[in-house]
Amino acid sequence: MSLLGKKAPVFKAPAVLDGTSIVQEFSLEQYIGKKEVLFYFYPKDFTFVCPTEILAFQKKLEEFEKRGVVVVGCSTDTEETHLAWLTTPTNKGGIEGVTYPLVADTSKTIATNYEALAGDWNYNEEGELEFEGTPVAYRCSFFIDKEGIVRHETRNDLPLGRNIDEMIRVVDAWHHVQEHGEVCPANWQEGEDAMSATREGVSDYLSKHAK
């Protein structure tokens, strides 16, 4: 199930802010009408691919912020585990220095509502409730506009890390569309030609760039 073009599910949950303090009722609703949001899920704290992604987002945080985009991460770990990881130095497997919010989805309801959970509950033949799959989140990412609408989403399996630069490119493309009313062709980068969404616009673009 895709959330593309739909309202991002709302929630209130604990989160760690600025890498140092826990709040109990964090929500993306605070950004409605003010900021766009790059909201992403990762599988688990104190693991292997996850810190590379979390730190890569931090490294590019200024690029997101100057585009008016807030970065927010989320996993099914507790807020206390988030805080412990955030205060562990990187040379000891931690993510110290990360300043954007990390949400704690211990009930797994946020991941479920975003269709990001890597499994689900089902009853076995004995009528017992069992979890099928892995009870953590896939590497899912959602670019949410100022009105709370999902404009881009990606879903990676657990071993596959994301390309953070590609997410910045998507933000640039969305901003170009909004500002100029043009559409962005394959592999478009900021500063390159876009095109009008007409037959003539496509023909003009391809005549210049097809070779």
From TrEMBL:
GO biological process terms held by the UniProt record: cell redox homeostasis; cellular response to stress; hydrogen peroxide catabolic process; response to oxidative stress
Gene Ontology cellular-component terms listed: cytosol
CDD domains, alphabetized: PRX_Typ2cys
Domain Thioredoxin: 2-176
Similarity comment text for this entry: Belongs to the peroxiredoxin family. AhpC/Prx1 subfamily.
Known role: Thiol-specific peroxidase that catalyzes the reduction of hydrogen peroxide and organic hydroperoxides to water and alcohols, respectively. Plays a role in cell protection against oxidative stress by detoxifying peroxides.
Name of the protein in question: Thioredoxin peroxidase
Species, as recorded: Mangrovivirga cuniculi
